[in-house]
Design goal:
The structure is a homodimer of 237-residue chains.
Chain A (H helix, E strand, L loop, with lengths): L11 H9 L4 H9 L5 H7 L5 H14 L2 E4 L8 E4 L1 H4 L2 H14 L3 H4 L4 H9 L12 E7 L8 E7 L2 E5 L9 E5 L1 H8 L5 H6 L4 E3 L2 H4 L2 H5 L19
Parallel strand pairs in A: 3-6
Antiparallel strand pairs in A: 1-2, 3-4, 4-5, 6-7
The first copy, chain A, binds a DNA duplex (20 and 20 nucleotides) through α3 and α4.
Chain lengths: 237, 237
DNA sequence: CAGTATCCGATGCGATACTG
DNA sequence: CAGTATCGCATCGGATACTG
């Protein structure tokens, strides 16, 4: 490793931690696991990380042998992918995420939600079901953020889903009206999709055949299936 | 948390990482899992960590709710123990350790072994078998370190094992002569106990009924059972 | 033994600006 | 799009000294 070693123990946890527990490293691995491969996509998932630091971390991970950097010479399609050893880190990332999902309070994290990050995150977990029309347009209106950040369109097309922030005069199929914190909680599995509709905090309009299975095509976070512990037992990190 | 938040994402991996991936924190958890509960014992397992930082980290972990601090008022037997949430971190620690055990090269870590740390680590995994005499004294002589650090005695007594650095004129039952790096490798499961004896790098003397089952009472690291990948595939962290 | 307060120096990191 | 170099400051953490 290019960086200086801190722990210098023969214990494998210490060795792993020397680089895995560097700032941002676990989250970079998460981005890769979520499917991002390009520098800009990874960066988009880590908006509070400086690009220069991301560059350094990726380089370290490549040097160590966790990642590979392909197509870096031709100026097209450069991408970071896991090596075999890197792929083996998936359970490490997942189990740490699952622990957090189960044990941590959510209140601090839903203050000051980064809207773009949330929508980016949602998009990559949507399910372009064959049953849906092509294209299938969903307009999400966030009713509690500044107007210029409120509208987002999910464009299900050709078995893929695009995210758009500008109104292209879409022929909208389904309209969703919701607060950004509520949306986060639903997407994370912290609150129930249907009960949000029933209590009126989420308004969803469109042909019933699409709205009634909205939770299917909308998707959820990859840890949404992990149940949280009772609120009184949750930790305030 | 008293410290400032870095990631500020609603992602549970990010939330967990806010404190789990602080410097030294994973290793503190390891110490607790290895059975240490007192400040000094924990510190002994982390010789390169300053006590003031350990103090701060423990305080943070207590504040978050991962640890409890018992008996801190009376000046006796103060101890740190896991809460329910903290105990649930065991798989997180283990899986990260197991990944390291499987995938990382060992060469950097066996340069400059901290002898006291190794012996401390060995002691807490020894097995005081009922079959052994009481007391049962093992003298370990490290043949490649400065003379004043070479001798260590394991004292199996009353179903417990003590570690001693001073010759108390012990009535030694078993004598072990070995290099410190070789000892580390055997203890970590990186090399085989018996083959080390056969190739002469480890000399063990005493009644055959004790020496032939030496690997049983000597014990091994808690990740020694995880097999390493082929050397050519290992990562240089 | 079981910590804690203070001090100050190293370095990690973000901001900015730049290249191909 | 895909990074990299430089600069300067904030903060992290080690050393030291101290307390109960």
């Amino acid at each position: 490793m290019t960086a200086k070693l801190i722990y210098r123990q023969y214990c494998p946890l210490a060795m792993s931690s020397e680089f895995l527990c560097q700032r941002w490293t676990m989250l970079i691995l998460r981005e890769l696991l979520e499917g991002s491969t390009s520098f800009n996509d990874i960066s988009r998932g880590l908006p509070r990380m400086s690009r220069s630091l991301l560059s350094r971390r990726l380089k370290e991970l490549v040097e160590i042998g966790v990642l590979e950097h392909k197509n870096k010479n031709p100026d097209q399609n450069a991408q970071y992918t896991f090596t075999q050893a890197g792929k083996a880190l998936e359970p490490v990332v997942m189990i740490m995420a699952e622990w957090g999902q189960k044990w941590l309070t959510v209140e601090p994290s839903v203050e000051n939600i980064d809207v773009d990050l949330l929508m980016w995150d949602i998009r990559r977990h949507t399910n372009p079901l064959p049953f849906l029309p092509n294209p299938f347009i969903v307009h999400i209106f966030l009713n509690d953020v500044p107007e210029n950040m409120a509208s987002h369109w999910l464009v299900f097309e050709n078995n893929d889903v695009d995210l758009c922030h500008i109104d292209r005069n879409f022929d909208v199929d389904v309209e969703i009206d919701i607060g950004v914190r509520k949306l986060t909680k639903i997407w994370m599995g912290w609150e129930d999709f249907d009960s949000a509709i029933n209590d009126g905090e989420m308004i969803i309009e469109g042909p019933k055949k699409y709205t009634k299975i909205a939770s299917d095509w909308f998707g959820q976070s990859s840890v949404a299936h992990i149940k949280k512990i009772a609120p009184s037992l949750r930790l305030n990190y």
